[in-house]
Amino acid sequence: MINLDNLNPQQREAVTTTEGPVLVVAGAGSGKTLVLTYRIAYLISLGISPSSILALTFTNKAASEMKERIRKLVGKSADYIFMGTFHSIFARILRHEAHLIGYTKEYSIYDTDESENVIKGIMKDFNISENHFSPRFIQSVISKAKNKLISKENGLEKFFGVYNKKLIEIYEEYIRRLKNSNAMDFDDLLIKPIELFSSNKEILEKYRERFNYILVDEYQDTNTAQYYLLKMLINENKNICCVGDDAQSIYKWRGAEVRNILEFNKDFPETKIVRLEQNYRSTKSILAVADSVIKNNVYQIPKTLWTSNEEGDKVNIIVCFDERDEANLVARKITALISTGKIRPRDIAVLYRTNSQSRNFEETFLRSSIPYIIVGGIEFYKRKEVKDILAYLKLLVNPKDDESFLRIVNFPARGIGDVSIENLKLIANRNEKSLFHSIPDLVEDKDVSERIKKNFQSFYNLISKYLTLVHQKNYYEVIKSFIDEIKILQVFKEEGTEDGIQRYENIIQLFNSIQEFQVNNPDKSLTDYLSEISLIADIDNWEDRKNSVVLMTLHAAKGLEFKVVFLVGCEEGLLPLKRDGDVEDIEEERRLFYVGCTRAMKQLYLTYARNRNRFGNSYPQVQSRFLDEIDKNHVIVEATPLAEIYLKKNNNYRTIIEDDYNQIEEIERINYSSLNLKPGSIVQHDVFGKGRVIYLEGYGDHQKVIVEFKSGIKKHLMVKYANLKVIK
DNA sequence: GCAATTTACTTTTTT
DNA sequence: AGTAAATTGC
Prior knowledge:
By secondary structure, this protein is α/β, with parallel strands linked by helices. It is 46% helix and 15% strand. It contains 30 helices and 21 strands. Strands 9, 10, 11, 12, 13, 14, 15 and 16 form an 8-stranded mixed sheet that branches. Strands 3-2-6-7-1-8 form a 6-stranded parallel sheet. Helix 11 (224-233) links the parallel strand 6 (213-216) and strand 7. The protein is globular, with a radius of gyration of 29 Å. The structure holds a DNA duplex (15 and 10 nucleotides).
């Protein structure tokens, strides 16, 4: 039996109430992951088969970490639990059952970009101007309709609004094209199982029987499709346990329905509700600050989160001059924190609303030699060269994949231009075939020039040659010789530019990841590899083994904790974010702010800039309303020296130029230098004895001093290595 | 059909 | 300001 001694009574109740519906309303830092982990381990220790447990998490990272923890409690049987994100679990199920809904198990998964490209193609063919509707907008509207399960039969026209006629045309063609390409988008991974289960009751029954225990993490961020899937899958035993916190619902924009958690007990009248209200993570100050802000939300489950942790340091609100000053300030604070020896780089997170904010910090941290890692932004698998290779691989396992076909048919260049491709599209459309399978038809065509025919035919032969080979057990070797044959690596190598080398290396890295996957998953196929990497999130790739400060968006930070958190850019328009012509959802932005604050264990810094650069222009900023809402008993407000000048000069901020920066940075370096060295400080050196600092330069690891020792010798020293002690 | 130059667009957040 | 798309020139 699992030892439950380190759980509190509520946590224990959530773990041991194994039968019937359970809703765990788990406040930030209240041990939600602990409960899920122990609940699963507990179930297994009762003799319940791990393969009858379905655990749905929000990220792959959460799933693999939880699995690891369960493995420590119950051993290898943890491997048989069905655990993963909604998308990855149902992608897997769909691979098995694809033939029942007119797909093959090699179906492609289209990401948002690929969906958007399909829509662009449709709009071009339908002669719909992109000025009127942006493809991106249409993609997002279609996606929302799909994950809200709105179909033509139930209100699609109304949902699409004024321009519904054209949108519906595009929508229907989009669905048709994906089907023809044997491809699914992210929403299909949730919708197709619903279709499958509705039309194949015996299949549904199979899974209902198998998954006798269902657990859902981050339930507040499930959407309608996910909710409906759960309702279908829950069998008559109703052993479902959902864990979540309505105050941390931050994915409404992606279709998440807070109602799922708010009305859980309406869906399951006999629900046992367990509230976890003791926070084990943060200091009293941090919790008080977070609470004073979130209580301004009207639409929420009332709860009182409390902690027996210490009062802790006050929360710091720091006014900065602009985003550069903000980054400098954070860098200085981090340097000072690290130099105390009590905080490691990996204990620190810098959280922001938008990915674009990372750049400043990246540049500054580089200069200050602060080790850092950025989660998100331009992720590896989204790089152009990587996507090119992946498109080849997708086409090899699924030759009907028109998107992938279009991406690589003329890359590297093989004399197949736009005109020829348009021609092929016409033939494909006429015969209702995929582009690849239409090549033979094009070759038959009398009107096509011999040169074009030859080019198409050799491409066709190339792909055909590898179509079956790629299903071999050792697909890695097949891919390697395929890539050799298309000479794509040479293209990048020959470029000779730094960019080309980087791309070359990225492809090599991709190869390594394929090889690694093949070795680690001997019973999986290339299709599985492609599927898994399509569903990887930025956060999944972050290994916290590295001792680096981590920079990420507030969204990515959900579920994580750090000793020290810098929540930056607390400005109106940025947090809460406002986009032109968009009505911001203040309550969701407030929850986002709340999520940010509650990541912090010991220290929380909230910063904002008086001026911020946007699209190359500097705009004056107003501090976030969330800062106004904070209970001021728990904060210290300060300003950087540059911001002080700004305040004094009263709006005449344009006079602050490079010189001011350099001056101020010099002053601040001294103030924040690791040993608190100042010119004039008296120091002790192991060899040279006592001396006086007469010059100081740089900070952090790069800090240099000139010390005049009692003997009269002046020495240039690196503070990092000199082992100085400050006497005065 | 490709390279160089100009223009347009971007900054929500992501499976 | 930085990047991707579009247009021009060869």
